[in-house]
Amino acid sequence: MRTIYIRKDYGNFTRRILLDMAYLVSNKKIRLxxxxxxxxxxxxxxxxxxxxxxxxxxxxxxxxSEDQNHFYFKFPFKPExxxxxxx
Length: 87
What we know:
Low-confidence stretches: none
Mean pLDDT: 87
Order of helices and strands: EEHEEEEE
């Protein structure tokens, strides 16, 4: 299982948030703690067979459910489509 990060850009700095991979694999949803949510979070993914990169922004209108501590988002693509994090 590879790691997938949600990102947020701050000028020349990029914040990365590690996804809960166990939850993602078993439920096909992104589970994000409410304390980590802010405007501008995105998940870069490949489209058109890996030729183009696009960002999937996690916004309030994409929240499919929530509980006391987490927001849940749809994960609309395969994990292989998600861009690896550059170190």
